[in-house]
Amino acid sequence: MGQAAKPGLKSGSKASLEDLLLSKCARVAVIGMGYVGLPLAVAIAEAGFQVTGIDVDEAKVAIINRGESHIPDVQPERVVRLVTGGSFSATAGYEALAGVDAAIICVPTPLGKSREPDISYIIAATDGIAANLRAGMLVILESTTYPGTTEEVILPRLQAATEAHGAMEAGRDFFLAFSPERVDPGRSDWTIQNTPKVLAGVTPQCLEIATALYSSVFEHLVPVASPKVAEMVKLLENTFRAVNIGLVNEMALICDRLDIDVWEVIAAASSKPSGFVPFYPGLGLGGH
């Protein structure tokens, strides 16, 4: 099953883990130090938690441990303050998971040749967690994926890892949730902290535990009925944004041929109180 429970954490105790999270005494690992994982890790560390970033790219690990940032949305001074203060560090090894109370997966899910999502990075991260899974641990998936991934892919792999030692049950022995990342890179008005955070657990107990962590980091949580709902929320948002970007691009081509300033058209259309969402350059039509 991996490592024994940490001293002070009663095996499988929801109350004990919740106490650690609410008191910010829990140790958190964020797997994947890209444009999703690094901002999230920094936000969690700034909220008062001890955070370890995990990434197979040793160059990224070295940059972080020097107190620098490779993500434009994360200012270097934020990273160096956390690293020098001892609340944030990075590593390329999954062994760091042995001592954490919560592990968050923020790895990429690129599209394959036939445009299907490649979840191999999610599976690799899940297996790394499974090798270190212990009673009283929270696991959250943030990577964009198809509806069903959390319950049909991650949950069985975590449960299978414990079978030799007596299978652990989600919601009783460990806790599993899904919360899609929603921040548009480059925006300064809607940040990781003030963008409403959609969240779902595979059981009500899992949602409670995930809420105990994320309520300290995000200003507003939006709980939904199941991970499948939360996974579909992210797909709807991405689809809506892509369709609107395509629409505005087509309008820009038409305006160019008619010698019309598309930005003037957009600015004037944006004045309507309802029915049109302003376009933000490089980011698509409004929203987050």
Task: Give an account of the 3D structure.
By secondary structure, the chain is an alpha/beta fold. The protein folds into two domains: 14-226, Rossmann fold (3-Layer(aba) Sandwich); 236-285. It has nine helices and ten strands. The chain has helices spanning 14-22, 37-46, 58-65, 76-84, 120-130, 149-160, 204-214, 227-257, 262-269, and strands at residues 27-31, 50-54, 88-91, 102-105, 137-141, 174-178, 197-201, 221-223, 279-280, 284-285. The strands form two sheets. Strands 3-2-1-4-5-6-7-8 form an eight-stranded mixed β-sheet, sandwiched between helices. Strands 9-10 form a two-stranded antiparallel sheet. β9 (279-280) and β10 form a beta hairpin. α1 (14-22) runs parallel beside α7 (204-214) and α5 runs parallel beside α6. The protein is globular, with a radius of gyration of 20 Å.
Shape label: globular
Uncertain regions spanning at least 5 consecutive residues:
1-11, 280-288
Largest sheet: 8 strands, mixed
CATH names the topology of the largest domain as Rossmann fold
If you average the pLDDT, what whole number results?
88
Per CATH, the superfamily of the largest domain is NAD(P)-binding Rossmann-like Domain
Strand percentage lies at 5-15%
Helix content: 25-40%
Q: Going across the major beta sheet, what is the strand order?
A: 3-2-1-4-5-6-7-8
Number of domains: 2
**CATH architectural name of the largest domain:** 3-Layer(aba) Sandwich
Look at the structure and give the CATH class of the largest domain. Answer: Alpha Beta
Q: What order do the SSEs take from the amino end to the carboxyl end, as H and E?
A: HEHEHHEEHEHEEHEHHEE
Number of strands: 10
Secondary structure class reads alpha/beta
- How big is the Rg? 20 Å
Helix count from the secondary structure assignment? 9
N→C terminal distance: 39 Å
